[in-house]
Structures
1.
Amino acid sequence: MGPFPLGRPARMAVFASGRGTNLEALLEAFPQGHPLGEVVLVVSDNPGAFALERARRRGVEAQALPWRGRRAFEEEALGLLEERRVDLVLLAGFMRLLSPRFVEPWYGRLLNLHPSLLPDYPGLRVHERVLAAGERETGSTVHFVDQGVDTGPILLQGRVPVLPGDTPKTLEARVLRLEHRLYPKAVRLLLLGLAFPPPSDLEERLGEEAARAFQVLSPREKPLYLRAWALLRAWGREERVGPAFLGQGGEWGRAAFLAAHLLGGSDPALLEEVAELPPEVRVQVEGALRVESSP
Ligand code: GAR
């Protein structure tokens, strides 16, 4: 259902075009020797990007691949990823579009960070557009990259308020602070095997009715269900996934959804409900929550 968990520390590459504050957050979260994975390579299409300097300062390989067209960049980048035995590619402020030649072989192992609550506000000048539309809330999205622009399956989202008097600059700063926590958290979920893009053979796996129940969910709701699925699988209860999606998963189904909410950043008040679960179920939920919060 996806390559993760790998059973060994993952080797990660970050692609960044500019100042690289999100790269910095990733370098901090996944330093050399981290049991889940480490950033081993930073690539930029812009030789002057401060992101490259951030990597060098931490002793991580930094490679500038100056933009000489998409085809040339992608060929060089693909070669480099293979040479360095990279398992996961993280786009962090990477401002170029990648073609299917790159995206297809990396699908499921290629993430992007986008400063809006996708599917709203894809593309550029996001904060300006959010303000012009009078939104009262915005946020950021980590998603699997597919062949569209900011369209791939969502992995994790976080929200922040838009305050009266905000400018694109103040809003950007608030969203960035959120992103510095959100991106490492999304990567942890992926590496732990608690996130994956929707499988293409849903019906065979879940049965027709449960597959339909999943398919009609909004793009923002799907990651929660996929986390619940991953948890049931990790607990050896995969046969409960279909029933759980239909609200018939019993205590295990409830537990999986509670844990999925908590792992996604929902209100910790839900922990009080975890405490009321039958002991053998509760132990599993607590184990899942512990794993995510450990280093
Ligand atoms: C981040 O806000 C990220 O979401 C956005 O660029 C910023 C990079 O900041 N990405 C995009 O807009 C992708 N289309 P950083 O260089 O300080 O990490």
2.
Amino acid sequence: MAPVTKAVVPAAGLGTRFLPATKAMPKEMLPVVDKPAIQYVVEEAVAAGLTDVLMITGRNKNALENHFDRVGELESTLERKGDSDKLEKVNYSTGLADVHYLRQGDPKGLGHAVLRAKMHVGHEPFAVLLGDDLIDHRDVLLTRMLDVQQQRSTTIVALLEVDPSVAHLYGIATVEPTDEEDVVRITGLVEKPAPGTAPSNLAIIGRYVLRPEIFDILERTEPGKGGEIQLTDALQEMADGPDWAGGVHGVVFRGRRYDTGDRADYIKAVVQLAVEREDLGPELRPWLREFAAGLGDGDGDPDPS
Ligand code: G1P
């Protein structure tokens, strides 16, 4: 099987959970510390060797294209001022990857967004990265998934153990062990099971390495949960295993993952990433300790001291 070179990033969602911030701006451009969320995702793809990135976008997404393009006026102003640090930050996202854009058209779900990549991807395995999940760059996930894909030639999804109380927010996998500690064989998948009915606590997080046969399956996948064409449903068919497609494996991730799709989790991600930064951490850490102490035990009153 050919090595993977392409990444697909679905980015057509309306981001309604972040209104009004996302009224005129794509949610993928929300800053996580000082970088838009989408840049972390593209950096992750590039770090794993995938420099051909296809974004599946929709209306209101021009800011994404602008972010990965040159911005002459700003560049020349910074050059004139001799501000090479800022100039480097501006230029970095321009040269990061070979980014392509395709509109989703009808927003019919994640499976539909992935299907739109068919012509661009061709008959090769490819990665899919969802922008709401950020993986800490110090922890390896995508590179490991690509290795497992090359070894086993199957379709690979990233799995994370989650608390059963949140399992209904994810695609959930039932699995069997393999001879590798972090790799499981997937025997079943269910998209967002009703609360309390999840068959396991292994959730799909938004990283996939898909075989191109997924496109044929997606073409006939009927709308599922929420009336949308679900990638999870197509993967379930793949796991049921037509022999030519070789089934589905999961790589169980035990590193740091940040969820930026939900407001509270987004705020946690910004704080976590900021306190670890060399330029911001020293100022933020003592402030945060003091602030947290002032919060007391959760009743709004400071702790008695
Ligand atoms: C999507 C997938 C779901 C997966 C999740 C990971 O759901 O459909 O299977 O667990 O991403 O973030 P979404 O959160 O986009 O509704």
